[in-house]
């Protein structure tokens, strides 16, 4: 054995004993391999989190008197780097950082990887740390990545109290690092009493929030908005205040960000919306002018699927029209996830709520996106106003923004107006409304009511205002194609309040207008005796043209069954006998337009019915359709059933918003790591099914599964836990039923899970 044999078995052999010994040797090897895996981080080869903890514990025990520090690093924009440069580049960066730690710490300390992009080391205390040290380290890290924009923050915990667990020490160092997140020019921070108090205070806020809501400690203050044109009161913004019995008034700037993080904001905002509507109802009852009030809608609210229902129910509960409630949505929300925001906010706007883009000018909304955004009013950010009004007139962008707003038919509110100079400047540029200390500070509801009471001629100004908002629908075009100028004139008069009416005198100009106004065309009134050839050719052209085929066309002509039949067969929405009253024409148009919009909505719904709302991949129904449509030639298919291991835990500890984010992250990983032709579906809450076609080798099939799970565990990280996905895979040759294959993936997933989280298992008979 001293020459390297693994074992010595005496003869004569006893098969039973040999079997036993071989088995135990294999077992030993596997355990050793496992220990190895446990000790070292797979990606970077440095100590894993657990092993780092263990080593530090040992070190501290053996060196009770030594002063040392735990230093953690965290990359602020790692997710971005992963997204922009790819996971491989992200991995490479992480390996580079591990190398840096190796160089920095060497034999004098212990180092390891905590989480995705978080590293840690224990160093002997050797004087104070300086910015230069960390700037140097940052530079080295940036040299590693082609991004060259890695922002790293460092946190230091000086080990004094040895009763604190190593895990806690690392947590604290990380908290210190996180406390300077977003602070330019800050490279490192200590975990000290100040930070501790701050964190305790935050915890205190979180611990008392539910009780505060129940006890009505939250109050709503209203800050008036004024119309510049005539100095009239134009509404108000509802701002939350917290009057805590022991701490006194708390600033929303302090508690709102915490509530946005833990999800409580959705509850609080609904409370504000409800209270605000109840005030308006009360004022209406007292006969005050019906001013609108703006409420803040936090981004978490928009991701709430029920937001439209909740808002609708709130206004209906108090018998208000949705246009009384203005919704302020911060600019940065729009840039974060533009498509989803546009969809949800667009829907709210369709329901009649007035949408204000809050804090405009503070973020980076690109101006060319602006015309796609469903908004009615731009609310210029306070800082923007203050810096712009300080510049000479011709140097700022204020004038340009104002013109842009005009051109897009948006109202403009300036917030944070504090001085007469600022106000004068805003008047010059043509701003519509102002809100700021110069006029009034936020005030309790009773005080605001006093302002309302003394509002003169509110009604009239309000009607004008309302009309302006209704104008946005006016941009729809109604085409009247008719040979009779008297008839065209009557239509013009009857509909001009609701439509932009365009007149065509022959088939040629009718077709021309349809193609010019394609996107804005609401309905067509087509005479069957239009000069310039067969007037039904206009109808045919509409029905055959891709962009306008669902445009309602109402044919007009003499009472004649045959004409009518022909028109309807060609797809006319209606046939109106001439002569007719304005009233009856009006009804027919309304009916046709409504019907067309219902049909469109129905088609959209049908398409929606097969998609999972949250992730955009197929839902269970869509999946079943897709499986039925699989082509035999594309076999063999690999069926993957992914399951997120920690969703419940995340939901329970970090809240549902975070849980939803996890699900969306995963669908994104799936999308970037599959082909266009692959089928992706959300199969259940945290289960995803993927079918890949023409997958010939088991090796490739497995590799793909592992790749996805690996990418996911790398992309998503939270401080408290690492998240993983497990996958069960089965190959389907289209010989038995798809149900059988699904059953096999299910069993494979079960196996994967019993082998530990984050596993990958391919079913073999
Ligand atoms: P915001 O929506 O941008 O609100 C405007 C903030 O500017 C308010 O601060 C307001 O009091 C302040 N302000 C108004 N005029 C002036 C002025 O002339 N000068 C200065 N220096 N400040 C002015 P507040 O009430 O402290 O609110 C801070 C932020 O908290 C709000 O910013 C908003 O983001 C958030 N917030 C407040 N209430 C709610 C709420 O009910 N729901 C949500 N989701 N967020 C809220
Ligand atoms: Ca606001
Ligand atoms: Ca604002």
What does this structure look like?
This protein is of the alpha/beta class and 765 residues long. It folds into five domains: 39 residues; 144 residues, Alpha-Beta Plaits (2-Layer Sandwich); 216 residues, Alpha-Beta Barrel (TIM Barrel); 140 residues, Rossmann fold (3-Layer(aba) Sandwich), CATH 3.40.50; 143 residues, 2-Layer Sandwich (Alpha-Beta Plaits). 49% of the residues lie in helices and 19% in strands. The protein has 29 helices and 25 strands. The chain has an eight-stranded mixed barrel with strand order 6-7-9-10-11-12-13-14, surrounded by five helices. A five-stranded mixed β-sheet has the order 2-3-1-4-5, with helices on both faces. The protein has a five-stranded parallel β-sheet with strand order 17-16-18-19-20, with helices on both faces. Helix 21 packs parallel to helix 22. The longest helix has 28 residues. The chain starts with 14 loop residues before the first helix and ends with a strand. Bound molecules: ligand C2E and calcium ion (2 copies). One calcium ion binds next to strand 11.
Describe the secondary structure blueprint for this structure:
Elements: H1 15-39, H2 49-62, E1 68-75, H3 78-85, H4 87-105, E2 110-115, E3 118-124, H5 131-144, E4 152-159, H6 166-179, E5 188-190, H7 193-214, E6 218-227, E7 233-244, E8 248-250, H8 252-262, H9 264-286, E9 293-297, H10 299-302, H11 307-317, E10 325-330, H12 331-336, H13 338-350, E11 354-360, H14 367-370, E12 377-380, H15 382-388, H16 398-407, E13 411-415, H17 420-429, E14 433-435, E15 443-444, H18 445-453, H19 458-470, E16 477-481, H20 485-495, E17 500-504, H21 507-516, E18 521-527, H22 536-544, E19 553-557, H23 561-569, E20 574-577, H24 582-609, H25 620-628, E21 637-644, H26 647-654, H27 656-672, E22 679-682, E23 687-692, H28 698-715, E24 725-732, H29 738-754, E25 760-762
Parallel strand pairs: 4-5, 7-9, 9-10, 10-11, 11-12, 12-13, 13-14, 16-17, 16-18, 18-19, 19-20, 24-25
Antiparallel strand pairs: 1-3, 1-4, 2-3, 6-7, 6-14, 6-15, 7-8, 21-23, 21-24, 22-23
Helix pairs in contact: 3-4, 4-5, 9-11, 21-22, 26-27, 27-28
């Amino acid at each position: 054995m001293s020459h390297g044999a693994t074992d010595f078995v005496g003869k004569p052999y006893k098969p039973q004993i040999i079997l036993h010994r071989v088995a135990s040797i294999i077992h030993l090897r596997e355990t050793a391999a496992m220990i190895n895996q446990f000790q070292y981080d797979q990606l970077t080869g440095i100590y894993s989190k657990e092993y780092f903890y263990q080593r530090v514990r040992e070190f501290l025990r053996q060196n009770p008197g030594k002063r040392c520090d735990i230093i953690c690093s965290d990359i602020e924009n790692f997710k971005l780097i992963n997204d922009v440069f790819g996971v491989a580049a992200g991995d490479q960066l992480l390996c580079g950082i591990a190398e840096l730690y190796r160089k920095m710490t060497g034999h004098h300390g212990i180092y390891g990887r905590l989480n995705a992009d978080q590293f840690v080391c224990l160093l002997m205390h050797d004087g104070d740390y300086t910015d230069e040290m960390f700037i140097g380290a940052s530079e080295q890290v940036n040299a590693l990545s082609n991004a060259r924009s890695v922002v790293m923050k460092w946190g230091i915990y000086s080990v004094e109290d040895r009763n604190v667990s190593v895990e806690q020490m690392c947590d604290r160092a990380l908290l210190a690092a996180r406390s300077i997140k977003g602070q330019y020019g800050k490279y490192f921070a200590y975990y000290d009493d100040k930070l501790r108090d701050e964190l305790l205070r935050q915890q205190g806020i979180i611990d008392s929030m539910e009780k505060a809501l129940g006890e009505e400690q939250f109050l709503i203050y209203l800050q008036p908005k004024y119309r510049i044109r005539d100095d009239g009161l134009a509404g108000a913004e509802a701002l939350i205040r917290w009057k805590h019995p022991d701490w006194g008034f708390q600033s929303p700037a302090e508690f709102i960000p915490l509530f946005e993080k833990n999800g409580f904001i959705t509850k609080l905002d609904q409370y504000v919306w409800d209270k605000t509507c109840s005030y308006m109802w009360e004022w209406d009852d007292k006969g005050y002018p019906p001013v609108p009030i703006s409420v803040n809608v936090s981004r978490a609210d928009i991701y709430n699927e029920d937001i439209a229902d909740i808002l609708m129910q709130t206004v209906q509960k108090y018998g208000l029209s949705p246009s009384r409630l203005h919704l302020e949505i911060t600019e940065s929300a729009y840039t974060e996830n533009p498509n989803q925001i546009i969809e949800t906010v667009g829907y709210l706007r369709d329901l009649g709520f007035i949408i204000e883009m809050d804090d405009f000018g503070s973020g980076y909304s690109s101006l060319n996106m602006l015309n796609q955004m469903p908004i009615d009013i731009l609310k210029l950010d306070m800082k923007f106003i203050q810096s712009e009004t300080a510049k000479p007139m011709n140097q700022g962008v204020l004038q340009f923004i104002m013109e842009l707003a005009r051109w897009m038919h948006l109202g403009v509110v300036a917030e944070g107006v504090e001085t007469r100079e600022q106000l004068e400047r805003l008047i010059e540029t043509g701003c519509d409304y102002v809100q700021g200390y110069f006029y009034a500070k936020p005030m309790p509801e009773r005080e605001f009511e006093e302002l309302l009471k003394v509002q003169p001629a509110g009604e009239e100004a309000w009607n004008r205002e309302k009309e302006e908002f209704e104008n946005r629908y006016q941009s729809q075009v109604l085409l009247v194609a008719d040979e009779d100028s008297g008839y065209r004139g009557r239509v013009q008069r009857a509909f001009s309040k609701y439509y932009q009416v365009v007149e065509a005198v022959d088939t040629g100009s009718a077709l021309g207008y349809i193609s010019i106004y394609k996107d804005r065309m609401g309905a067509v009134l087509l005479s069957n005796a239009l000069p310039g050839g067969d007037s039904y050719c206009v109808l045919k052209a509409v029905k055959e043209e891709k962009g306008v085929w669902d445009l309602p066309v109402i044919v007009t002509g003499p009472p004649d069954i045959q004409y009518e039949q022909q028109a309807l067969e060609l797809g006319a929405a209606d046939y109106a006998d001439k002569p007719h009253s304005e009233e009856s024409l009006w009804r027919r148009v309304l009916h046709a337009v409504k019907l067309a919009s219902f049909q469109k909505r129905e088609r959209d719904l049908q398409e929606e019915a097969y998609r999972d709302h949250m992730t955009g991949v197929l839902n269970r129904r869509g999946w079943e359709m897709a499986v039925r449509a699989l082509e035999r030639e594309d076999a063999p298919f690999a069926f993957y059933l992914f399951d997120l291991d920690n969703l419940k835990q995340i939901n329970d500890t970090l809240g549902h918003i975070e849980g939803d984010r996890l699900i969306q992250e995963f669908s994104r990983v799936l999308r970037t790591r599959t082909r266009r032709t692959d089928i992706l579906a959300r199969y259940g809450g945290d289960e995803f099914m993927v079918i890949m076609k023409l997958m010939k080798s088991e090796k490739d099939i497995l590799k793909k599964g592992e790749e996805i799970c690996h990418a996911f565990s790398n992309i998503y990280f939270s401080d408290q836990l690492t998240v993983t996905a497990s996958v069960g895979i089965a190959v389907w040759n289209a010989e038995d039923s798809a149900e059988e294959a699904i059953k096999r993936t299910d069993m494979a997933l079960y196996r994967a899970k019993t082998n530990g989280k984050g596993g990958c298992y391919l079913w073999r008979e």
